[in-house]
Amino acid sequence: MIPDDMVEEVRARADIVDIIGELVPLKKAGREYKANCPFHEERTPSFYVVPEKGFYKCFGCGKSGDVFSFVMERLGLDFVEAVKHVAGRCGVEVREVTRQREEEDPNRALYELNAFAREWFRERLVDPATGQAAQAYLKRRGIDAETAERFGLGWAPDEWRSLRDAAARHGLDEGLMEEVGLLSRSERTNEPFDRFRGRVIFPIEGTSGKVIAFGGRIIGAGDHKDSPKYLNSPETPIYHKGSNLYGLSWARHAIRREEAAIVVEGYMDVVSLAAHGFENVVAPLGTAMTPEQAKLLGRYAQRIYLLFDSDAAGLKATFRAGDTLLEERLHPSVVTLPPGEDPDTMVRNQGVEKLRAHLEDAVDVLDRKLQILDQKDFFSSIERIRSAVDRLLPTLRAAADPALRDIYVAKVADRTGVRRETLEAELRKASSGTARTLRPEATSSPAPSVPRVPKLGAERTLLLLMTKNTEYVERAGEQLETEDFVDPVYRAIFQALLDDPGLRAPPTAMDPVAAQRLQELLDDPEEISHAGRVFEDAVARVRVATLGRALRELDRRIEEAPDDARKLALTEEKARLSQEQRALAPDDWTTTARRLRADHNSNR
C-alpha cells in the first residue's frame, strides 16, 4: 500500500477545487464553490466544495468527503488508484505500492485452478478437432473469433474425465477443483467427474481481471436432455454471484466513458452486443439485481439502461432491478423491445441502428410502469386505480434520491388522482415498516384487523384468489417466484397459472395430483371478502416463509464459513434479509394466527 506520509503529502498539495472542477462545473460562492450535485439530479445547487477545509458536501443527498473519496466515487477507483490519480494532477511521484505477496493469498490456489481451466477450455475451442461444433454455434450467434478471444470463451468437450485428467497431469488438487465447481462427484460411484460437459464456456472475471467462476451454455442434446441450458459455478471463497457482474472487467472503462451502463440478462447478450460495438454492457449472474451489484455499477455511472427480454419474465426482472437501482440512488431507464425479441436476436436480426434507436427511446422506470398500466386500462375505475397505486408504491419507496422521489410522487398523484399528502403519508409509514399497501386514512374508530386468511394456508389462499381473478395472477407473478412455494403441487399450479392466467381446466400434461388439486380450486365456491387485502397478506406470508428458509440456510453457511471475511459477508446478508422479513410481517400476525387456530379448533 502507499505509505501514510505520502498519502498526506498528496492530500496537502492537491487543490481540491481544481480536481473536482475537472469533473464538475463549479461556481464561486463567497469562500466556497458550488454546483449541481454530480451524484443525484437536482434543479438548484446544493453541492459545495470548501477549499480551506479540503472537503466537499452535498446538502441534498448527503454525500461528503475529501479529494480522494470524490475521485473514488466519481471515477469508480479504489483508494490506491485515487491517490495515484490525484498525485498525477499535482505533480507528486508516488512510490511503488507494496502489495501482499501472492504466496500469502489464501485463495491463490483457487485462482490458479480457474486460470488453468480457462486456458484448457480455450484450447479446446480453437482446436479444429474438438471445437468445431462450438465454433459453428458461436458463428451462428454472430460471435466472431476476435470477440470470442476477447471474452476468453472456451469449450468443454462432452466427456467425463478430460479436464480432470488434464489437471491431474499438472498435479492440481481434485478437492479444490470440486470446491470451485470444476468437478462434481457421482452419487452412485462417489467418483469425481467433469462438471461442465458439452458446453460453451464463459469465464467470469472479477474487477481485478482474475477468473473467479465459469458459466456454461449447453449446445446439442447428447445425454443432457434433462440438464439446464446454463450451468454456473457454485459460490466459493472467491466467487459470490450477488457481488459481481458478468462483463464488468471488460466494460468498466466504456461505462465511465459513456457515463451509462447497459444491463442485460445473460452471458450471450453481453458477448453478442459487444461483438456489435456496444462496449458498456454487463449482466447479473443468474440472480435478480442485488444491492451489491447496484453499488458496483454506481462506481462507474449513474444512468443505467435495463435491456431485458420482452416477455413477462423479462418485464418482471426489469422492474425488480429498477427498484434495486433506485435504492442506490442510480437512475434506471427501461428499454422496450418488440414482442418476441431479446437483445441478442434484436441486434443480429434488426441491426445495430435499430437497437440504438430503442436505447434512445428508453424511458424512466416509473414512466414505463405508468405506460403499461395505462395500456392495461388500470385508470378506468376506482378499484383498478387502487390496484395501480399498489403496483406503483414499491417504486416510490425505492427512490432514495429525495428530488427524484418528489418527482415520482407528483407524477403518481397527477395520474391516479390520489392526493399527494396521502401518498407521502403511505411512504412515511412504509419507511417504518408498518405498511405494505395503500390503506384508507385512519379515523376515530378502531383500526380494522388484518383480514382473516381462510383456513387454507397462505399458498392455497393465494392460488384460490388467482383462479378467481386473472389480475391477481399478474400481481403474484410480479412479487413471487415459483420457488417461493414450499408445496411442490402448489408450485406446479402456480406455474401453470402464470403460463395461462385464464386457465379454466387442468392442462392435459399436468401431474394427476396437481391436476386434482387445481380442479378443486377452480370448483371452490368460496368468496373471500376484502380480497385485495387478503391477497397482499398471503403474498407477504409466502415471502416471509421464503426469507425464513433463506435465513436458516445462511445460519448453516455462517457456521461453515472458511474465514472471518466470508463470515462477516454472510452475517451482513443475514441482517439485510432479517430486516426485510421484519418489514413484511405485521405485528398482529401472531395474534391473528392464534385466532385462526382457535376458529379451526372450534369448528372441528
Structural notes for this entry:
The chain is of the alpha+beta class and 604 residues long. Strand 7 (183-185) and strand 8 form a beta hairpin. Mean pLDDT is 83; it is low at 432-456 and 587-604. The longest helix is centred in the last third of the chain and has 29 residues, at 531-559. It folds into five domains: 4-90, DNA Primase, Chain A, CATH 3.90.580; 103-239, DNA primase DNAg catalytic core, N-terminal domain (Alpha-Beta Complex), CATH 3.90.980; 248-361, Dna Topoisomerase Vi A Subunit, Chain: A, domain 2, CATH 3.40.1360; 371-431, no CATH class; 458-602. The N and C termini lie far apart (72 Å). Helix 3 (67-75) crosses helix 4 and helix 14 packs across helix 15. The strands form four sheets. Strands 1-2-3-4-5 form a five-stranded antiparallel beta sheet. Strands 13-12-14-15-16 form a five-stranded mixed beta sheet.
Strand order of the largest sheet: 1-2-3-4-5
Task: Tell how many strands the DSSP assignment holds.
Answer: 16
Q: Return Rg in Å.
A: 27 Å
Terminal-residue CA separation: 72 Å
Please mark out the parts with pLDDT under 50 across 5 or more consecutive residues, or reply none: 432-456, 587-604
State the domain count: 5
Helix content: 40-55%
Strand content: 5-15%
Shape: globular
Count every helix, treating DSSP H or I runs of 4 or more residues as helices: 26
Name some characteristics of this structure.
604 residues, alpha+beta, DNA Primase, Chain A, DNA primase DNAg catalytic core, N-terminal domain, Dna Topoisomerase Vi A Subunit, Chain: A, domain 2, 5 domains, five-stranded antiparallel sheet, five-stranded mixed sheet, 26 helices, 10% strand, globular, disordered C terminus
